[in-house]
Design brief:
The longest helix is centred in the middle third of the chain and has 17 residues, at 171-187. The chain has helices spanning 61-68, 98-113, 171-187, 202-207, 222-225, 227-240, 263-276, 295-298, 314-322, 333-337, 341-347, and strands at residues 31-33, 36-38, 42-44, 74-81, 118-123, 140-141, 150-153, 156-159, 164-165, 192-196, 245-249, 281-285, 305-309, 328-331. The strands form 4 sheets. The protein has an 8-stranded parallel β-barrel with strand order 3-4-5-10-11-12-13-14, surrounded by 5 helices. Strands 1-2 form a two-stranded antiparallel ribbon. Strands 6-9 form a two-stranded parallel ribbon. Helices cover 28% and strands 16% of the residues.
């Protein structure tokens, strides 16, 4: 489990605002990200935890989980499906029904009372699914190209299947699903939304040529392959305003069978298109240990705040911020086991190790029982 043709607005005016000149620009310096004032440069990365209830309704335990981590400058929730078609994992929350919205409202209210900022990650898994989730219907994708993996369905682990290619006249509905998810996230009281364009899910599938072999206006050239991601982003911007919308990408990540013949050119084009829409931030999974990182090339192409993710330590995160390579750094499993991660970095306290056995399901265990430093 896990974890350009849209009408462009003026070039972003939502770039991250640095701390005053007499304040050190370090992990603990405040930063403005679009319309959001973040207290520090820590981002809690979106992470699937598989604890939702029947109907993909968020578990009430999630309020405690996110409140415990509200000292992050920004929390991005686990992926939230924008429609039933977007489901691909058991017990993952949605953001498309009234019951889901009501449950999320309790969570956002609790985070705000704790002084935190929280964005919903809008998610459609595309081909990373199984007919068991869809009444026997095939998962959808840009092209009928499968990949070899196992999917955890309500009936147990099963191999993936070859998806059904979306017809051209179905693509406006994909845009509408994300628009509806954005509207529901606003009703749920979030501070903004992040569009999930990473890790081999639907928008990433359209972006990369290993999974997109369409011959119409949404496939072939790079401009065609980034068309749907940009149309989705424009629809979400129309709901929220650009200064409360982020987008996540993973140029190097092969997860879920992803490949691209020229990721530098592909993601440079997507980044340029996203920047033209004036987004609050770009969230880039580009591990600090990757030999040929793409992030340094993309950084100057994006005019909003720039968030990096992928194996960062206290030292490498601090260097990314002080050097200007990023405005914020997101942490995944470190936040699972260390709900007070910013305080631990500040004081040099040792980090607790996460238990992989409780990453998914498990209710309270491995979810809200990690202690803060005394």
């Amino acid at each position: 489990m896990p974890s350009a043709t849209a009408t462009a607005t003026s070039v972003s005016t939502t770039a991250a605002t640095p701390a005053p000149s007499d304040s050190p620009v370090d992990m603990f310096a405040p930063v403005r990200v679009g319309a959001v004032e973040a207290a520090n440069r820590f981002v809690m990365a979106p992470m699937t935890r598989s604890r939702a209830l029947e109907g993909n309704v968020p578990n009430p335990l999630a309020a405690a989980y996110y409140v415990q981590r509200a000292s992050a400058g920004l929390i991005v929730t686990e992926g939230t499906q924008v429609s039933p078609q977007g489901v691909g994992y058991i017990r993952t929350p949605g953001i498309h029904s009234a019951e889901q919205v009501a449950a999320w409202r309790g969570i956002t209210d609790a985070v705000h009372r704790a002084g935190g900022k929280i964005f919903a990650q809008l998610w459609h898994v595309g081909r990373v699914s199984h007919p068991d989730f869809h009444g026997g219907a095939l998962p959808v994708a840009p092209s009928a190209i499968g990949f070899e993996a196992k999917v955890f369905t309500p009936e147990g682990m099963k191999p993936t299947v070859t998806p059904r290619a979306l017809a051209l006249d179905e693509l406006p509905d994909i845009v509408a699903q994300f628009r509806h998810g954005a509207e529901q996230a606003k009703a749920a009281g979030f501070d903004g939304v992040e569009i999930h364009g990473a890790n081999g899910y639907l928008l990433d599938q359209f972006t990369r040529d290993g999974s997109n072999q369409r011959t119409d206006a949404y496939g072939g050239s790079i401009a065609n392959r980034v068309r749907l991601p940009l149309e989705v982003t424009q629809a979400v911007v129309d709901v929220w305003g650009a200064d409360r919308v982020g987008y996540r990408i993973s140029p190097h990540v092969p997860f879920n069978g992803m490949t691209d013949s020229d990721p530098r050119a592909t993601f440079a084009a997507l980044t340029t298109g996203l920047s033209a829409l004036g987004l609050a931030y770009l969230h880039v999974i580009d591990p600090a240990t990757t030999a040929e990182r793409i992030s340094p090339q993309l950084r100057p192409l994006f005019s909003g705040a720039y968030i990096v993710n992928g194996g960062f330590t206290a030292a490498s995160a601090a260097e990314a911020i002080t050097s200007g390579a990023a405005d914020m750094v997101s942490f995944g499993t470190a936040f699972i086991a260390n709900p007070d991660l910013p305080q631990r970095f500040r004081t040099g306290a040792p980090l607790s190790a996460p238990s992989q056995a409780t990453f998914y399901q498990g209710e309270e265990k491995g979810y809200i029982d990690y202690p803060a430093v005394a």
